[in-house]
Structure formats: C-alpha cells, structure tokens
Amino acid sequence: MLTVAPDIEVLARFGRALADPIRCRLLLALREAPAHPSDLADRLGISRTRLSNHLACLRDCGLVVAVPVGRRTRYELADPRLGHALDDLRAAVVAVAADRSCAEAAEKGCC
C-alpha cells in the first residue's frame, strides 16, 4: 500500500530543490521542454558531473524523471503541474516581495 507523505515533508522536498540556483535553473529549463543532460549542461554552462549531481537531487525529491530514449536519457518534470506550480510560485513571490530584497529579508532572519 502506497502511503502519502505529509504536507510538510512534500513542501520541504520542494524547498530543498529550490534552495539551489542551479536546481532552480534546471527546473525552469525543464518547464520549457524535456532535455538531454548534455544539452542542459551546455545551456546552463556547468559541467556534466555537476549537472548529474543536481539531477540526482531533483530525482530524489521526485520532481524530475529520467526517460530512456534509445541509448540516451531525457529528463522531464515528473508532472506537468510542477511547471504551473513554478510559474505560480514565481509570480506570487514577485508580487508579494517586489519592494524587498532577499538581503533585507536575511537581516530579519527570513532567508
């Protein structure tokens, strides 16, 4: 029987994924379209080893999946709703915090 993770655990996994700028860039790139690791590494300007570590983290968080395509592997968001969630989250954060920088929030212990 499959058990559902508590809401807090699910949100914490999503937060861990978003805590790193490279993983954010990866998620946004995969929101646009599925891609092969070599293309993602070139697009993000990082080594394939570094990319592999970040993709492993995103897989472990359940946010991306690896899809075999012949001899290659393509990555995509695990669910199309994640793309919408990223768009909604980005829009909400921009709308709410348009007049605050993260540095200001960090001074208050928020970031």
Automatic annotation (TrEMBL):
One of its GO terms (molecular function) is DNA-binding transcription factor activity. It comes from the Bacteria. InterPro entries: ArsR-like_HTH, HTH_ArsR_DNA-bd_dom, HTH_Metal-responsive_Reg, WH-like_DNA-bd_sf, WH_DNA-bd_sf. Keywords: Cadmium, DNA-binding, Metal-binding, Transcription, Transcription regulation. Residues 3-100 form the HTH arsR-type domain. Pfam families: HTH_5. CDD domains: HTH_ARSR (cd00090). GO terms for biological process: response to cadmium ion; response to lead ion. Homodimer. Metal-responsive transcriptional repressor for the cmt operon. Binding of cadmium or lead causes the repressor to dissociate from the DNA. This is HTH-type transcriptional regulator CmtR. It comes from Streptomyces mimosae.
